[in-house]
Amino acid sequence: MLALQKGFYGEVLTTLYFTIMQPIGLLVWIYQAQFKKEK
After folding, report:
1. Transmembrane segments in this chain: where (predicted)?
2. Angle at Cα 23 formed by Cα 31 and Cα 34, nearest 5°?
3. What span, in angstroms and rounded, lies between the C-alpha atoms of 11 and 17?
């Protein structure tokens, strides 16, 4: 039971991590693209 819960929390954390990091990565990429254009 404990192992099952641990696996569940691991999956939730992984999903949250990707859900949060994808928009941040996109924003960083857009910011860098804008910065390069100005130079």
Report:
1. 12-31
2. 10
3. 10
CA pair distance 21, 19, nearest whole angstrom? 6
- Quick: pLDDT tens for 1-38: 678 888 899 999 999 999 999 999 999 999 999 988 87
Of 31, 29, 9, the residue nearest 21 (C-alpha): 29
Which residue range is the domain that position 9 belongs to? Answer: 1-38
Q: Give the count of domains, the chain.
A: 1
Judged by DSSP in three states, 4 sits in helix
* Amino acid, res. 31: Y
